[in-house]
Amino acid sequence: MEEPKYKLEQLNFDGPLDLLLKLIEKDKIDIYDIPIVRLTEQYFRYIDAMEEKDLDVMSDFLVMASILLDIKAKMLLPKEDHEETEDEEDPRAELTARLLEYKRYKFMAHELRFYEDYAERCCYRDAELPEELKSYVPPVDLDELLKGVSGDTLRQVYMKVLSRMNAAEDTERQEFFGVIKKHRVSLAGCLKGMVGYAKKHRRFSFRQMLEEGSDKTEVVVSFLAVLELIRMGQISVNQEDMNSDIEVEVNSDADFDHLDLSGIEDR
Amino acid sequence: MIEENMQGEQLSLELIDKNNDAQNIIEAVLFVMSGAVSVSELAKACAYDNKAAEREVRGLMRRLELEDGALIVKEIDGKYQLCSNPKYFDNLVNVVSAKKKPELSDVLMETLAIIANKTPATRVDIEKIRGVKSDFAVNKLIEYGLIEEAGKLNVPGRPALFRPTDEFYRRFGVENKYALPRTDEAVESRISDEVKTEVKDILGTECCEVN
Questions:
Q1: Residue A227 lies in a domain
Q2: In this structure, are B9 and B82 located in the same domain?
């Protein structure tokens, strides 16, 4: 390898623009060389060398590399003389502007460190307010709050809210596809259904109880209902192994008619 | 004794107005409130309008500076706070235990400079300048309490806006965004020359004039 000057010994740069600057700084390249190719190569090598392939970072570098390629390509194309290309921006202008802008912030960041050294000598009190002051909230002054609000302004605001609501509804597409409603399964309802089923069958399998076509939510909620009934001491269950059916048996002392379902909440 | 000093300095005699009630009230409020206090709060305390309160706090600022005593007033992004005279720092460190401040890398400093200058700024603003994702830096700066969210920009995606915190202005001794370090003409022409050479190096041709 005869490219020791491009060795990646130093990887402490931040981002493609910074890498670009560091590479140029490190090695003044011959103007008539075609450094853009090597810089591009350098980008790819950096990506290869990355320990962790971070797609975000990789794409940042690719964008930078392709901007450079784009500029180069534009400059290689011969300009047509009869075309007044005055308003067409020089392809290098954007790169120059970006580098300039970036350097200004680099300078600012550098200067801020000096500011920090000086400012360190000013000591402030720690913010420690008495509890009652900290938790003080000024009382709401209703008159102040409702100043200038009349029944009419309220009506206007209400109309605005309504129109915004209507705008959010996609009436056009609803015509074709209808409205998809959220399917809610209530635990309390499921529990009642199960109690009814258990009264008829003293012994049944979980699968058998679930009707055909039960969706995932129904299965989950039914299982919750089973757990709930076990907790209430109404049923016992038995399962042979992990994936087999659950055998449910109603306890001999079960009292389905006096179940307290008030604590059952749907989440 | 004060009388004597004042006679010795004609300049300070004009500016020092020890019997100014409003300035005393402001000083008392600044002392008690400990954090940075807004002009409207100061105005409320001395029953002035904001403009008059601002004038008085500025007057107090000048007076304390001239007196060169224990305390001075600093502007913290349009608010005001008391702090100790920097010349007694070396004495203070002997007794006051300063909290260890987190070390800031170049990435964080650059990001901070961009946010402070463009405030309020979105992540994209930062990425446009640094050419790389800013999530890490932004999150770290929030964690260090140097920037905070300042609402959302009303464009698609509603990106979060960030601004520097009071702590930023305190830590770097910057009064407001206009007091941030700027490139002067010498620096401008230096970096402009640098960039010209760099663009030439990258592209292998002379660069055009760009401002």
A1: yes
A2: yes
pLDDT the model gives residue B85: 93
Taking the C-alpha atoms of residue A253 and residue A42, their distance in angstroms, rounded to an integer, is 79
**pLDDT below 50 — which residues of chain B?**
1-14, 207-211
ipTM surpasses 0.90: no
Note whether residue B100 is domain-resident: no
In which domain, by residue range, is B198 found? Answer: 186-211
Cis ω on the peptide bond leading into residue B120 (within 30° of 0)? yes
What residues make up the domain containing A192? 187-258
Is A173 a member of any domain?
no
Counted domains in chain B: 3
Q: Contact at 8 Å (CB) between A35 and A29?
A: yes
Using an 8 Å CB-CB cutoff, list chain A residues near B180: 108, 112
Beta bridge partners of B59: none
**CA A100 → CA A112, B90, B126, distances in Å?**
18, 40, 15
Average pLDDT, chain A: 73
Residue B11 is predicted with a pLDDT of 47
Residues B26 and B65 in one domain: yes
Beta strands in chain A (DSSP E): 203-205, 235-239, 246-250
Q: Residue A128's closest chain B neighbor by CA?
A: B34
- A196: domain CATH number? 1.10.10.580
Count of domains in chain A?
2
A126 with B207: Cβ contact below 8 A: no
Q: What would the two tokens of residue A244 be?
A: 């087999």
Looking at the fold, whether B166 and B205 belong to one and the same domain comes out as no
* B89 Cα to chain A: minimum distance (Å): 5
In-domain check, residue B173? yes
Q: Residue B10 has which token pair?
A: 């004609």
**A129/B173 Cβ within 8 A:** no
- Which residues between 2 and 31 in chain A have a beta carbon less than 8 angstroms from any beta carbon of chain B? 14-18, 20-21, 24, 28-29, 31
Do residues A109 and B104 touch, judged by C-beta distance below 8 A? no
In a domain, A148, yes or no: no
